[in-house]
Amino acid sequence: MKENISLHKGFAIIECLARHGELSIQRLTEELDMNKTTVYRFLSTLSTLGYVQQDPDSKHYSLTYKLFQIGREKSRNQTLTSQVRPFMEKLLKETGESVHLAVLQGAKALYIDQVESRNTIRVNVEIGKTFPAYSVGVGKAILAYMPENEVIDLYREETFVRFTEKTIDSLDKLMEELKVVRDRGYSFDNEECMIGLACIAVPLISFDKPVAAMSVTFPRFRYAEGSQDEQKLIDQVVSYGRMLNTLLS
Predict the structure, then answer these.
(1) Which of 49, 99, 170, 217 could be a cystine partner for 88, CB 3.0 to 4.6 Å?
(2) 93: Cβ contacts below 8 Å, ≥ 6 apart
(3) Residue 232 reports pLDDT greater than 50
(4) How does 194-217 read in b/e, with b if 16+ C-beta sit within 10 Å?
(5) DSSP-based three-state secondary structure for 173
(6) Total domains, the chain
(7) What is the pLDDT of residues 141-169, one digit of tens each?
(8) Within 13 Å and on the Cβ side, how many CA atoms surround 167?
(9) What is the C-alpha separation between 81 and 144, in angstroms, rounded?
(10) In this structure, are strands 130-132 and 22-23 parallel, antiparallel, or unpaired?
(11) Do 233 and 142 share a domain, yes or no?
């Protein structure tokens, strides 16, 4: 596999600043044996991305706390996963359907864990996969418990992509749907992201803030819409959501 030289140079600058704390462009060029124009170009990009800052007086460059924040987020997600995983496994055992855990990453739902159904026909989502939060149950479950102004800010300029005929396609429709989610305590993705797939999701709340969502995802044909079997599945997911929210509160 061909390596990306530019990426190597960018990380070399980050690692050099991490070792020395604060450096001038001249010192960076000497430490890294790069020309001044190249170093300046990379510093400009890293600064725009929020990883590097320049002291207005000394003109020296240093790292921001963005990498620390990324590491802290990863650690928090790992802790969350370890807390939720036993409940996910029990929910899988009760329902026989795949169970997923997701967090919000910007305007997208990021899947961070799953336990897979043993059914021949099952629904699995690759860990690390993202979908627009408005198009999946876990995303809507989190958005519904965020302050409305934050949701509006996230999607004010968003182009709503329609994956199926049922996908939410405007901010107004999203806000209406989130009110329904809050009223009933769970969200539903009824073939909105992919034809033939549905899911029931509940928000996971910690200190009055939605930190994640857990869902049971299933092929639509296995549960007739509005049936007793579907309602039983809803009740099971909601029950486990309540147990988890007691743990996380």
Answers:
(1) 99
(2) none
(3) yes
(4) beebbbbbbbbbbeeebbbbbbbb
(5) helix
(6) 2
(7) 999 999 999 999 999 988 999 999 999 99
(8) 18
(9) 21
(10) unpaired
(11) yes
pLDDT, one tens digit per residue, over 8-66 is 888 888 888 888 888 898 999 988 888 888 889 989 998 888 888 888 888 899 888 77
The two three-digit tokens of residue 167, written as one number:
């996908």
**Domain stop point among 44, 64, 84:** 64
- The CATH number of whichever domain residue 58 belongs to comes to 1.10.10.10
120 to each of 93, 184, 229, how far by Cα in Å? 15, 32, 19
Q: How confident is the model at residue 77 (pLDDT cuts 50, 70, 90)?
A: low
Of 65, 132, 122, give the one whose Cα is nearest residue 102: 132
- pLDDT greater than 50 at residue 215: yes
Q: Is 211 helix (H, G, I), strand (E, B) or coil?
A: strand
Task: Give the single-character DSSP code of 207.
Answer: T
| Burial (0-12, 13-18, 19+ Cβ within 10 Å), 138 | buried
State the residue range of the domain holding 80: 72-248
Whether 72 shows a pLDDT value over 80: the answer reads: no
- 145 in Cβ contact with 139 (< 8 Å): no
| Judgement on whether residues 46 and 96 belong to the same structural domain of the protein | no
- Residues 82 and 51 grouped into a single domain: no
233, 226 Cβ separation under 8 angstroms? no
**Residue after which a domain boundary falls, among 31, 64, 97:** 64
Which DSSP category does 221 fall into? Answer: G
Can you tell me the distance from the alpha carbon of 43 to that of 62, in angstroms, rounded to the nearest whole number? 10
This prediction's pTM? 0.71
One domain, residues 143 and 207: yes
If asked whether residues 29 and 104 sit together in one domain, one would say no
User: What string of DSSP letters covers 180-193?
Assistant: HHHHHTSEEEESSS
Tokens encoding 49: 């991305």
